[in-house]
Amino acid sequence: MNQENFNFEEELKKLPTKPGVYIMHGQQDEIIYIGKAISLRNRVRQYFRIGADGRQKIALMMPQVTRFEYIVTDSELEALVLENNLIKEHEPKYNTMLKDGKTYPFIKVTMEDEFPRLMFSRTMKKDKNRYFGPYTSSYAVKDTIDLLQKLYHIRSCNKNLPKDIGKTRPCLNYHIKQCDAPCQGYIDKETYMSHVESALEFLNGNYDPVRKMLEEKMMGAANKMEFEDAANYRDLLNSVNQVAQKQKITNSDLEDRDIVAMAMDEKNAVVQVFFVRDGKLMGREHFYLSLAKGDTREEVLGSFLTQYYGGTPFLPKEVMLEMEPENMEELEMWLSKKKGSKVSLKIPKIGQKEKLVELAKKNASMVLARDKERLQREEERTRGALKELADLMGLENLYRVEAYDISNISGFLSVGSMVAFEDGKPKKNDYRKFRLKTVQGPDDYASMHEVLTRRFTHAMKEMEEGVEENYGRFTRLPDLIMMDGGRGQVNVALKVMEELGLSIPICGMVKDDNHRTRGLYYNNVELPISTSSEGFKLITRVQDEAHRFAIEYHRSLRGKNQVKSILDDIEGIGPKRRLALMKRYGSLEEIRNATEEELSQVDGFNASVARSVYEFFHVEDTSGV
Question: Helix axis angle, 328-339 relative to 297-309, nearest 10°?
């Protein structure tokens, strides 16, 4: 529903009493908040009653809400899952956001193979294979795999055994005595599987047998004066000891559990997670979260758990927490359903477990204190820089900035680029590339006019078709258009806005004699800006990114040995037909002005090819490329 026609009073009456997810839209129709509810009617109505929700962030958010929408679910548990997925996709301004999108590595033992392998994996599936982890270091995983292949001669090839036995010669690993060549049938399946079982025992934390074996071989080789072999066994023994040292026993019950604790200030939070697998501390990791004003510890912890465990393939049997999170009961149900067996959330009060939680909390506090200055600098260079630019130009709201650039070599293969920054950071999924269709030669003004016209015409078309923001390619409009140039480029953009009936602020970057930006050209006035300010640095990053993206696209086209004409983009046009077109018409402009009937008279053309050429120049391109 269009926000201009949105009647809050009427829409609030239509809210169902069923569970679901509600979505709040801001002044640019962007999604600014996503929440879940047992009863959509009761929960959403609370936002529109004065004083009903006392949270500070809600008081800041509500004046910006221009409309809301909702999705009904069958249960609150389904609403929890949907809320988590939508928050990850749309990253709303007023939701607590997990900043780290990390995925953790596993060691995968391919038990589905007749001759299993050890593999690095970032996913864990419900299959016949065995998985160990997650580990916090990919290097540790690779080192462990390498060690086990050397120790137990586990194959590293991807041959289909036993089908491929004897089809090729043994690889180098056989000749350097790190594989027993099952690909040649030099080792039977039973013996090979005994090596795999030893590797599995090692991965389960039983290091004593291999230590004893390596010590005996090392001493035996030394007694025989085979010092090179003795040194190899010594190195392997040191590697085993290093792996074992990293996995300290924390509990004797051999359970899988995560230990989660948090430290937070008014703007940021750090969550520390200890990973305990089979009773051993396998590693730890910390996560940053950006907060909305007024977020409580319970809300932040609940948001972290849903976002983190919604993205990790492994779920422990138990998660130990410092406090009860928001929606604890629903979280337990969701985690158990996701794992396929019971997952417990517990808050230990005494004993070793409570000490581990306290240790995790101390670690989180140390990380937050250590990184506070870095987080503050990040805030200043992103949101702070945007606010600085907004204040300079007198803009009330500045969240999304778009910049454009043209790249060509003497007019050859002219391309346009669009980059988007949101909240002071690149939004790379929204970057767009344009092949110029109507401009010949090095005419940057005409090229920019075409790029801007296509970009915003697409946006208007998507909005007319009712395409929801973030689902269309171009629907989200910028709060500011930044042109790489002064008055001339700004006037081109203003002309496009006038032609399309849009009103979007446009500024240009004014250069000095050394072609360095010295200020912003806005509303027919040059606004000076300090080159040491965060706002200026943000302008430079946007400008550099637009240049990089355009040049990179141009280079990729040249790298494909593409010819100078854009006619190659037309379906059915090869070298012969392209030559026939250029002989008959002489220029792209003449081809563009030709009728479909006239095009069908070109040598080698039929009605279908003529239609393709005509539509290429006259039917709106919706690819954005």
Answer: 10
